[in-house]
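look at this stuff:

>
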Amino acid sequence: MSLLNNESDSGSGTSSTESLSLAKKLFDEPLEEEDFYDETNNNLIEACAIHVPMIISTLSVERKLPHGGSKFGRVYTRRDRKKRHDIIFSDYFIGDQSKYTPDTFRRRFRMNIDLFKRILQAVEGYGNYFTQKVDAVGNMGLSPLQKVVAAVRMLAYGCSADSLDEYVQIGESTAIESLKKFCDAIIGLFEKQYLRKPNKSDISILLADGESRGFPGMLGSLDCMHWHWENCPTAWHGTHTNGFKKVPTLILEIVAGHNLWIWHAFFGMAGTNNDVNVLDRSPLFDDIVNDIAPACEFIVNGHQYNMGYYLCDGIYPKYATLVQTISQPCSMKEKLFAKRQESIRKDVERAFGVLQSRWRIVKGPARMWSATDLGKIMKTCIILHNMIIEDECNQGINPENWQPDKEEVPQNITLEHDFTFLMSMMNIRMKQIQSKSTHIDLKRDLINHLWELYGSNHVD
């Protein structure tokens, strides 16, 4: 009776009143006629069929809570955030009095302590997430140091968010959120500088490095790697699982230099694609096609070329901008070329190895559900990788030489807005990139050039 009254209050007044009158009539009056009994019984069944599902659904549906945070019945974990902040600070950040040495810090955080402080200071000023706040009862929340330590540890070790609770005193959902916010901050603050396309100054340094190694015009080495996506949606397994890896993967394409600086990164293609498919979708040659790439001119064996090239493996097409090895060399010249090309192309393999060793999160299975989040994590690891390369001055290169130039105002440039003309020029430049004849000429010149440099010392 009370349930029916509640239903009446919630907006079913007419039907509820009819049900009450039928029930009262059923219990208060004797059943004298069979027709009346059948009619009353049918009405009661109809009323129950209407109201019982409504009552059950109202009682069974709970209010959906947002992901993370406390909810009724959950055990409260008392975390002494202030004390833990002081412990972390005394472990690493009080100079000679620190519990652990700078070498220990570098091993655990993958970077020198000065670079970490620089990142911490920059991230703290990016938005307000990393600003320390006071909670509802007046207690200080997590410090920026604790959030950044949690994020960097997850990137460095590839550990679960829950494993950080004991040392950092941070909840699992908060650790995951800190990682995402940290990635957003790193990309927003440092992508323009540390994941930039080579400018005029960069290209001159890359060309000089390539020429010193016997490959004039070389801008780096190109290759792809797969990242196992453990939590790939089941419906996507068919498009992300290839026959070689046997598990869902996402593909990363990079160009790396001699000092392991990553100049180009393209991530997110499904694992069923091969390197050629990834190259077709990659923006690697977009600047050349759009005629906005810095000039790149060089001479090999007495012949001049106006487009730089990348060393790659045999799966890539024979473009003017790609130089592969010779899989079955016949002459001594070809054997020398294959040996040198395969040796120098290891730059990109070394870059993958260092990236995965330094940031274990990209070596193990990816546990995020969103491909967008994984893309941000990968980009963050690459940016941090380049920052560490610069900070440690690998190969004796002065980091100042790798800084982007100031804005240069191009002179005497005529803008062309004719669509037909623009498309024709883009097609011409694309054909130049894909020119097989230029590729053959360039490889022949490189073979002869290397033989002149190293042929006298070559032993089969």
In short: The first helix runs from residue 2 to 9. Residues 2-60 form one domain.
